[in-house]
Amino acid sequence: MQLIDIGVNLTNSSFAGKHQDILERAEAAGVRQMLVTGTSLEGSESALALCLQLDESGQRLFSTAGIHPHDASSWTADSARQLRALLDQPRVRAVGECGLDFNRDFSPRPQQEKVLEEHLALAVEAQRPLFLHERDASGRLLAILKHYRDQLPAAVVHCFTGEREALFGYLDLDLHIGITGWICDERRGTHLHPLMASIPAGRLMLESDAPYLLPRSLRPKPKSGRNEPAYLPEVLREVARHRKESPEVVAAHTSACARAFFGLPERA
């Protein structure tokens, strides 16, 4: 059984000096490929550098390049040029993490929307898929995406935590859905359980979002309290349970979906 983790924040400082151990544990757990998330210009450059440093084969680690909505205020006249240069690199497989976050509003909403549209224009120009973030903003995100969707190759709403209406809005736009350990959280993730069967095979992908969102159902719990890709099978089990599919079946179709979405090679 093989898995692909489409979103791991491997550049996070809590992983410093631990990368080889993390990769070894992921491999032992069946996580064969990963997308390292870029959330700022500096972070996107670091994500690419890690991929090149830790995976000389070019078959295991890939990255994204973008500016998170929390950091939308950092956008400058030169940001598009810098992201465009990153997107020219073969290991960079998607535009993002980008989107809208009206939950924390760390950047003003008009600026978030402007920067999202800049990312959309880049994705259309480069013909790369989008890696999207959304919190409490599904209506605006859908309204903006509708103007670009016909020109975009693909887009995934990463770490989906929304309600039924938002899910069906995204599916109606032919978007993909990323599911994390949020679904394993008995305090706030149970609303996702009945939605799992509504996501078609071929549109569903799995992600750890490590070091965040440690699955609360994981036993034993790591003393560090830190999530990592090796715990992705716990997300797989919870998703499979609510889809009434075997873990093997879900692993197969989510990995095939991720490989096609990001244009990943088959691991030798």
Note the run of SSEs as H and E: EHEHEHEHEHEHEEHH
| CATH architectural grouping | Alpha-Beta Barrel
**Largest sheet at a glance?**
8 strands, parallel
Low-confidence stretches: none
The CATH homologous superfamily is termed Metal-dependent hydrolases
Distance between the ends:
15 Å
Overall mean pLDDT stands at: 97
What is the β-strand count? 8
Shape: globular
Strand order of the largest sheet: 1-2-3-4-5-6-7-8
At the first level of CATH, the class is: Alpha Beta
Question: What is the number of independent domains?
Answer: 1
The share of residues in helices is 25-40%
| Number of H/I helices | 8
Radius of gyration: 17 Å
Give the structural class. alpha/beta
Reported by name, the CATH topology is: TIM Barrel
Overview in brief:
By secondary structure, the protein is an alpha/beta fold.
Describe this structure in words.
This protein is α/β, with parallel strands linked by helices and about 270 residues long. It contains eight helices and eight strands; from the N terminus they run E-H-E-H-E-H-E-H-E-H-E-H-E-E-H-H. The protein has a single domain (about 5-260), classed as TIM Barrel. Helix content is about 35%, strand content about 15%. It is globular, with a radius of gyration of 17 Å. The protein starts with a strand and ends in a 6-residue tail after the last helix. The model has no long low-confidence stretch (mean pLDDT about 95).
List keywords for this structure.
alpha/beta, TIM Barrel, 8-stranded parallel sheet, 8 helices
